[in-house]
Amino acid sequence: MEGLCKNNISLPLLLFCLLALVSAQDSPDDYVKAHNAARAEVGVVLMEWDEGLAESAKNYANRQATGGCALKHSGTGLGENIAVSPDGDLSAAMAVEGWVREKADYDYSTNACAPGKQCGHYTQVVWRDSGLVGCGKAECADGSSYVVCHYDPAGNSAGEKPY
Predict the structure, then answer these.
(1) Most CB within 10 Å of its CB: which of 32, 40, 104, 159?
(2) From the CB of residue 70, how many other CB atoms can be counted at a distance below 10 Å?
(3) Where are the domains of the chain?
(4) Judging by DSSP bridges, how do beta strands 79-85 and 145-152 pair with one another?
């Protein structure tokens, strides 16, 4: 495709190339690669994409997008991470990278977050038993992006370390 999208292209082809670029930022592979990069750092099994989880996540993202885009968990019993970008498009990699940045606030030796900090999104990303992931994205009325990833089995079991 890269060869198609270079030098002196027609308007329809340009639009196709731009659409392909935007949708490629949110492909299943983009979500899985971002998760697996973090998982490889701590030596846990890599995740695989699951269409059922993706459908569940997309449905929830759509519901939240039409309901004001509140950062509220679905209560499905699945593992779940949510991200909202108030200032525009949030790619798959950006959402996962945001969750992974919480690693700085996680203390493995005590299995706790730093005081006043969150780290549960990170620990869900690297939870050793979570082998399947599916994610969805929706646009909120204000133009922000709402990204949801569902995990099976769920992580963050009380008293257990993620890896």
Answers:
(1) 32
(2) 10
(3) 44-152
(4) antiparallel
Q: What pTM was estimated for this model as a whole?
A: 0.83
Question: What CATH number labels 44-152?
Answer: 3.40.33.10
Q: Give tens-digit pLDDT for 85-121.
A: 877 789 999 999 999 999 999 999 999 999 999 999 9
The pLDDT score that the predictor gives to residue 70 is 85
Show the 3-state SS of the chain: CCCCCCCCCCHHHHHHHHHHHHHHCCCHHHHHHHHHHHHHHHCCCCCEECHHHHHHHHHHHHHHHHCCCCCCCCCCCCEEEEEEECCCCCCHHHHHHHHHHHHHHEECCCCEECCCCCCHHHHHHCCCCCCEEEEEEEECCCCCEEEEEEEECCCCCCCCCCC
| Cis preceding-peptide flag for 115 (omega within 30 of 0) | no
